[in-house]
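Entry 14. Ran structure prediction on the chain below.
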Amino acid sequence: MNHTANARSWVEHANGHSDFPLQNLPMGIFSRPGEAKRCGVAIGDAILDLEAVLAAGLFDGAAKAAVEATRGGALNAFFALGRSARVALRERLQALLGEHSEHQSALKPALIPASDCQLHVPAQIGDYTDFYVGIEHAKNVGKLFRPDNPLLPNYKYVPIGYHGRASTIRPSGTDVRRPKGQTLPAGHTEPSFGPCARLDYELELGIWIGQGNDMGQAIPVGDAAEHVAGLCLLNDWSARDIQAWEYQPLGPFLSKSFITTISPWVVTAEALEPFRCAQPARPEGDPQPLSYLLDKRDQAAGAYDIELEVLLLTQRMREQGVAPHRLTLSNTRSMYWTVAQLVAHHSVNGCQLQPGDLFGSGTLSGATPGSFGSLLEITEGGKLPVELASGEVRKFLEDGDEIILRARCTRDGVASIGFGECRGTVIAAN
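Output, structure tokens:
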């Protein structure tokens, strides 16, 4: 896969790039003003227009078929082709963009500054499921409401999830309008209606489904990784006061469905391969996964080692030129279940997964302060305000606040890669 640290590109700004060196090559959908959406690959600070490279006659065989499947402004058909198509395209792109490429002059016109482009949701999302597999987050939140029993009995047996709203998933940079809804004010017996007062972020991993399954046919856990096209960042914006009133007995609804923000680049499973690791051993006394969720290979190398970061930039900080304040530094190793286990569980009842479906991991908090993936945890439900470098304090998000998610993969002897940013700025309710 040519994922060595010393592989270089003739695209000079890609070499040592914090997110998009030659070893990454994530897929996405972009457009330029007045032009239709098309597929591109991030390389350094630029986007390689795949249709332009195709028109130049630089793809053939499986790589050509893969690029042809990206036409139409969505990656669903490309996802449906599976791993072999991704590998063929990746290998050809690394040859074309490598420092010894013979096609530099032909490729340069297809290389567009990313700053000149608008990025879009990379696929038509048929269904969106949000899981709850960050066990530290589950414990932290559980303690707020059930100090003596933070985790319910099913948590360590079942990958908990709920069906989210696909229609309001938006790419990084989309404004987040403060939602309205019913809340039950403290000390009251009847709800009131109005703008959310306890708006929060949730730091999550987004999981893109590649090849799906036929209805009624479960995906075995040992095969499930083959059904994952790649990953992104995901911010599951949450209206905590609306959520507190509505979530029993069926779970989140309007408190979550107003917007979900994702980073626009799909970091492929192949680019992430060097950063796989063993699933952390379960604590002594925890039950082993049931047989349909247990695979030795998945336990040995089915987790990811990805550093996750959340930054907050307020309106005052922008005006003062103050750098964003780091709220969270966490890691995907806090996932109690692997991505393959999520796919296997989702399909075990015969549910059909389709190319372009999206999963959210659930909030990925660490075990210690500074690693909590939501303000609900950081402030203990609003009891402990966060003090910012600007002199401001926050219990929950205010209008003008911008949340920035970032992710990095690092390992000795391997080139580091990133995900790009996932941003959203809160604006006032209508």
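The chain is about 20% helix and 25% strand. Will compare against last week's run tomorrow.
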